[in-house]
Design brief:
The complex is a heterotrimer of chains A (about 325), B (about 280) and C (about 550). By secondary structure, chain A is mainly alpha-helical. Helices cover about 80% and strands about 0% of the residues of chain A. The longest helix of chain A is centred in the last third of the chain and has 38 residues. By secondary structure, chain B is mostly helical. Chain B has a domain of about 160 residues: MetI-like fold (Orthogonal Bundle). In chain B, about 75% of the residues lie in helices and about 0% in strands. Chain B is built from 11 helices and no strands. The radius of gyration of chain B is 22 Å and the shape is globular. Chain C has 3 domains: about 250 residues, Rossmann fold (3-Layer(aba) Sandwich); about 170 residues, P-loop containing nucleotide triphosphate hydrolases (Rossmann fold, 3-Layer(aba) Sandwich), CATH 3.40.50.300; about 70 residues, no CATH class. The two termini of chain C are about 25 Å apart. Chain C has a 6-stranded mixed β-sheet, sandwiched between helices. A 6-stranded mixed β-sheet of chain C has the order 16-17-18-13-19-20, sandwiched between helices. A 4-stranded antiparallel β-sheet of chain C has the order 2-1-4-5, covered by helices on one side. In chain C, helix 4 crosses helix 5, helix 4 packs parallel to helix 6 and helix 17 packs parallel to helix 18. In chain C, about 50% of the residues are buried. With about 550 residues, chain C is of the alpha/beta class. Classes of the chains: A mainly alpha (about 325), B mainly alpha (about 280), C alpha/beta (about 550). Chains in contact: A-B, A-C, B-C.
Amino acid sequence: MAKILKMVAQRLALGFLTLFVVSLIIFLGVELLPGDLAEAILGQAATPETVAAFRREVGLDLPPHTRYLDWLGGMLQGDFGRSLANQREISGLIGVRFANTLFLAATAAVIAVPLAVSLGVLAALYRNTLFDRAINVVTLTAISFPEFFVGYILILFLAVQANIFPSISNVSADLGFWEHVYRVMLPALTLTLVVVAHMMRMTRAAIINLLASPYIEMAMLKGISRSRIIIHHALPNALAPIINVIVINLAYLVVGVVVVEVVFAYPGLGQYFVDSVIKRDFPVVQACCLIFAATYILLNLTADVLSILSNPRLMHPK
Amino acid sequence: MERFWKLLKSAPPTAIFGLLVIALYVFVALFAPVLAPYGESEIVGPEFLPRGEEGFILGTDNLGRDMLTRLIYGARNTIGIAFVTTCLAFLIGGVFGLVATTLGGWVDQLLGRMVDVLMAIPTLIFALLILTITGTSIPVLIVVIAVLDSTRVFRLARAVSMNIVVLDFVEAARLRGEGTWWIITREILPNSLPPLVAEFGLRFCFVFLFISALSFLGLGIKPPLADWASMVRDMRTLISFADPTPLLPAGAIALLTVGVNFVVDWFLHKTSGIRDEK
Amino acid sequence: MRNSDAGKGDVLLEMRGLRIEGQSEDQWNEIVHGVDVTLRRGEVLGLIGESGAGKSTIGIASMGFARPGCRITGGTILFDGMDLRAASDEQLRKLRGSRIAYVAQSAAAAFNPAHKLIDQYTEAPVQHGVKPKAEAEREAMELYRRLRLPDPESIGFRYPHQVSGGQLQRAMTAMAMACHPDLIIFDEPTTALDVTTQIEVLAAIKDVVEEFNTAAIYITHDLAVVAQMADRIMVLRYGDLIEEGNARGMLADPKETYTRQLLAVRSYRKEEAPPDESPVPLLEVRNVTASYGGQVIVLDDVSVKVGRGRTVAVVGESGSGKSTLARVITGLLPPSEGSVLFNGEELPASYKNRNRDQLRHAQMIYQMPDTALNPRQRIRDVIGRPLGFYLGLKGAEREKRTRELLQMIEMDPDEFIDRLPGELSGGQKQRICIARALAAEPELIICDEVTSALDQLVAEEILKLLQRLQDELGVTYLFITHDLATVRAISDEVVVMLEGKVVEQGGKADIFTPPHDPYTDLLLSSVPEMDPDWLDDLLADRAARKARGEKVMESADQ
């Protein structure tokens, strides 16, 4: 048990170290801007005096490491600085949007995960049948579609022609839960289509790999029923790979929302991020980057830890 | 040649479909100036002309350029840029991956850790961050995406060659006194090719979709170059009027990636099948 | 003794004209061509043959089962009057595990890593409704005790990876016994084990099979093992029955040439090479200590001398450090202490610092010819490269020498020079590896388990070839092996290793005649012999010596 705690602790330490390095990269990236932030923002026309004044105002005259520590310290306390575009507190702008993004990702996950895992297991069990082959072709096709293609097809058919869902997912805080779900249905379906294919293929591969194990053959030769083999013999060992597949895809979902949010004009963090990139609003870009990267890293970290915890060899050391 | 035909005959319909699609795209990309009725960014008529009107088979776009012409040139630009990027990513990732395994030790450790950090940041987010700083131009786009994508190639090249480097024939070559270059090019590389070739197809799809996503967001290939994803972006308002025209360039992207994926799937099946037989 | 058919019951299993096909590259080829198998209650039938004989496929077919990629296409399988080919899946399922059980080759892979041993034991009885869990658990402990597993009360509550290989194999035998089946299929149950561990497992299997009067099909490639276990033997080759008969009768008087060859396989003995007269041995390993990553010491103060033109066999079980010794000599693993001398000169510790001539003079042949040859290089390049690299041969000269080398290893140059390794059999590949080593014109060849991956007859051909080459070229061999039969066949001198130390070394005759070091004794006495009474005699002898108070060393994997 001590060994496993040590392993988990190691993973966590490594995860947080990565997070730290990533924050450094995000910070230094902007530092490396030709000239500096002030010149980049104020442009060629600005007089040296205005540039210097601006520098003092945003604290650019301080040495880089002081600014980094200030920046990171602020981030940790939820203070992301001010937007260059409108001088408003970034944390106030980001909070609601990030919640919206998580809501969209969660809705997609609720549909996608059970669907993908059950389809993947079925395809593995009925491997090389017509069902399996059809699923293979369909998922391969779905993987190949750009998100905006899927999004616009859904808009065309389900919003414009059939008029079932709204084509623009504008939500606000005063909406009820189900109304919110209804409005994000199309973007959630888009994400589902893209992510299910991936998740399903990975689940299928993991299960097929597992079913080829000698201990599964042994269970068959012991006369164990098919359902018991799946539940009792395959599943405990399949847990680690399946958890891994799910969490990796969840991580993908949180990031993959960026394009989908733009397609559906959904007021999430992704769309805000893209807008800020176009406006070159650096503090906002940095904040969004850090939030996305942190979510992604934490999810992958969860996958790591869970797969350690679900490995019998590690759980019951010699 | 004969073997080639035999191989082709044994291909499943999806793979044949994929090969045909790829051939068609390559043909269009190569002969775009001959095939296209107008110049790439020539304004030839009124804006947003519907399909079939005034002799424009696919109508005109938001600036009054011929849609068909833009589509044809799009093949050239979008595929070309994605292809160059993939090649560059393979060059970087492949070389470093092979070097890491062959040299081992601290070189391997250092490269591995660097890649770990790069891969810890989602590619799209990272790319957007860098593009904010550097601004978007085609060469920058290519280099940034190639470097980010080369991390995956590095991982695969390293994993594949790791499996080979421990085999006895590599040890035999080392004990014979062969140099690193010989070991990489004669012993390891020929045996890592099948998975790397398959990966090239997959990476190409990924890069292609990735650049398309960036262009769609307005941060990738910029006008006046004809590019499919930018076309979708420019025409997207039409969707609300039940006009499926924006789906044409989007479908063009999808069709190519479907084609490549089908071929890769077949190739993977084929090469892994050969391995089973041994 | 269970040597005659007297006292055996009525027919339990009858397979007639069994045909099985296997799939390769979308094509179905017949791999078992109409074999008849009859088994009576309480009888042990040995199925023996080399790889590709179909013995495992036939064994498993008696459960009405075919592995993925195989299918039963013809014949009948009657088990206790029930037609298994006509039976429904549900009927077959009820039969498996309760009336016919299976023991796999690798217990480590065949036990589910997620469940405790005892839960896997009780699963079949509980699922088949034979007995309740508590009763099955009690019986499990009883069986574990009978199979002489340590801590029979508690060992079942461990997970498979917490138990050693030999113990797992016995636990799997216990598991097969759980429902007191009429028939057990043993599929090479001791092949993956060390020879001293094998004895324990063989004894355990023999004991419980007799105790419960269970019929068994015992599948193995080792005739000496099957001689201990079986009442009757069927010799198979390429899916055909070659010879069938009472075990004692067949061993005493084999009818077919193939059976005779199999029987004779361990009788090859080389003539001793003349002793090396020069004062300096060709190779000397002096007080070498080595470890991986400075942690676990794998070689502990090892010294070995190898004389010119001689064959020195280094023998030991897994973990003895014998392969590490080869790595130290070749320079792949620089030792932490001690040195390697070649012709009296100290070699640089790492191969990276050795010059081309030093590398050339010590060549290596590997255990797995499959991985020792680059699958993308043609034979011409495989053999031609060292010729060019070391001797500077080019063009026609190199081609000529390549062809000579191919002839030397008895392969037709015209037929083989353009082939890829994938187009050769295992034995042919190993020959190519030999030719590659010879191409460098070395003084010393290190042979690391060169015959263990090969079928017995092929392995013997390789040994004979190596011997002929030594006679002709005077090359010196360092033979790393776990197989005492190989040692007996080819060595002039023997080094016995255990846990990183040299236990005993000397001339072959000295080592093989008592008195031995206790470990050498254990090792030598554990090698199965063709005599069907060998196992019983050995166990009786060990028991008697123990009873007299003598110290009898036991396998580490108890």
